[in-house]
Amino acid sequence: MKTKRKYFYLDDFEHRLLVGCLMTARNEYIHDDKPIEDVNELIYT
User: Fold this and answer.
1) Secondary structure (DSSP) of 2-23
2) How far apart are CA 10 and CA 8, in angstroms?
């Protein structure tokens, strides 16, 4: 089965806001001892 991808075009402000939210979620996951691999993948992609 082929995975369909979606692309988003963000300006600088939107990009910083999105990464900031992902980093906050990642930090909460670390604090709660939850896996962070999926969040890391979103941040680094």
Assistant:
1) PPP-------HHHHHHHHHHHH
2) 6
CB burial of 9-40 (b: ≥16 within 10 Å; e: otherwise) equals eeeeeeeeeeeeeeeebbeebeeeeeeeeebe
Mean pLDDT by 10 residues, the chain (45 residues): 87 95 96 95 85
Contact 39, 26 (CB under 8 A): yes
pTM value?
0.75
